């Protein structure tokens, strides 16, 4: 009987994606479950796109109290939810699920993760500049641009090789966003003290992001949301110029905090021990 009671009390969450075996979310949340001595579990749920609706229809019945969502489901899963936050609506994408009053809700915590990582790695960054340059115009760029606007930036210049994709972000978020072609980058760098890379360039297995950081003024911050490898060529170049470099791992760690708190009732800390735990896995799997 005691064993059955313990099973009923077990709170489960999962990461939903396709494929999902690469996800570090189970490692991250598992660390917190162990650290806080909680009776819970965090699993991988590999769900093909054609099976998403049926999987979500039985989500509560599988014993899940919530979960995370990764590619390719971040947008399509919105049709399966009862409610989404204002942030998720603005993003057009969801990465965190939980039940509230019997309703399945969705949020996008990438915005929280991005801002918290910058606050931790470059305290006071938002007092240094009112304009920001963002490289890339994909899904990650949406969260970055939205977060920067929420923090009060007066202008966010989105630079992308496909001008049309950059312009789509301007249309989504309004007049404070400037869409710019790649050729405009040198001039834009001279007007900002924060550069954020949201492209996959520099990621393990991808070509490096080859840009000249010389136009950036002294005291500028360079943030690369890539975290495999932790030290991208862009960050190396920034350090060589004496600029403050912020890697992307903290965004992954901080975006996980709200979900864990909703599922397991404890607000976890992004600690040095957690970072070391994830870094060890990155080193192990990407020698």
From TrEMBL:
Keywords attached to this entry: Amino-acid biosynthesis, Aromatic amino acid biosynthesis, NADP, Oxidoreductase
InterPro entries: Aminoacid_DH-like_N_sf, NAD(P)-bd_dom_sf, SDH_C, Shikimate_DH, Shikimate_DH-bd_N, Shikimate_DH_fam, Shikm_DH/Glu-tRNA_Rdtase
Enzyme class of the recorded protein, top EC level: oxidoreductase
Residues involved in shikimate binding: 23-25, 70, 95, 110, 227, 255
SUPFAM superfamilies: Aminoacid dehydrogenase-like, N-terminal domain, NAD(P)-binding Rossmann-fold domains
Pfam family, one: SDH_C
Reactions it catalyzes: shikimate + NADP(+) = 3-dehydroshikimate + NADPH + H(+)
Residues covered by the Quinate/shikimate 5-dehydrogenase/glutamyl-tRNA reductase domain: 128-200
Keyword Nucleus in record: no
Record flagged with keyword Amino-acid biosynthesis: yes
Entry similarity comment: Belongs to the shikimate dehydrogenase family.
Its job: Involved in the biosynthesis of the chorismate, which leads to the biosynthesis of aromatic amino acids. Catalyzes the reversible NADPH linked reduction of 3-dehydroshikimate (DHSA) to yield shikimate (SA).
Protein name, UniProt field: Shikimate dehydrogenase (NADP(+))
Species, as recorded: Chelatococcus albus
Organism lineage string: Bacteria, Pseudomonadati, Pseudomonadota, Alphaproteobacteria, Hyphomicrobiales
Name of the encoding gene: aroE
């Amino acid at each position: 009987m005691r064993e059955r009671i313990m099973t009923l009390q077990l709170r489960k969450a999962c990461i939903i994606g396709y494929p999902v075996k690469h996800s570090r979310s189970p490692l991250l949340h598992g660390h917190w479950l162990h650290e806080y001595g909680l009776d819970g579990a965090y699993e991988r749920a590999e769900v093909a796109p054609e099976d998403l609706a049926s999987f979500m229809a039985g989500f509560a019945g599988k014993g899940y109290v919530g979960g995370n969502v990764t590619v390719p489901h971040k947008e399509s899963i919105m049709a399966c939810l009862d409610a989404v936050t204002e942030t998720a609506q603005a993003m057009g994408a969801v990465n965190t699920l939980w039940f509230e009053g019997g309703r399945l809700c969705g949020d996008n915590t990438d915005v929280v993760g991005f801002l918290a990582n910058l606050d931790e790695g470059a305290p006071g960054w938002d007092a240094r500049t009112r304009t920001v340059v963002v490289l890339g115009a994909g899904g990650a760029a949406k969260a970055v641009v939205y977060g920067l606007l929420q923090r009060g930036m007066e202008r966010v210049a989105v630079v992308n090789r496909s001008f049309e994709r950059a312009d789509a972000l301007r249309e989504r978020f309004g007049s404070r966003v400037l869409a710019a072609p790649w050729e405009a980058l040198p001039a834009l760098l001279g007007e900002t003290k924060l550069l954020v890379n949201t492209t996959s360039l520099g990621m393990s297995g991808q070509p490096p992001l080859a840009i000249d950081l010389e136009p950036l003024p002294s005291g500028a911050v360079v943030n690369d949301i890539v975290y495999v490898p932790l030290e991208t060529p862009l960050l190396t170049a920034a350090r060589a110029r004496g600029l403050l470099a912020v890697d992307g791992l903290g965004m992954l760690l901080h975006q996980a905090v709200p979900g864990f708190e909703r599922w397991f009732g404890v607000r976890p800390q992004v600690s040095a021990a957690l970072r070391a735990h994830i870094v060890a896995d990155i080193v192990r799997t990407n020698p």
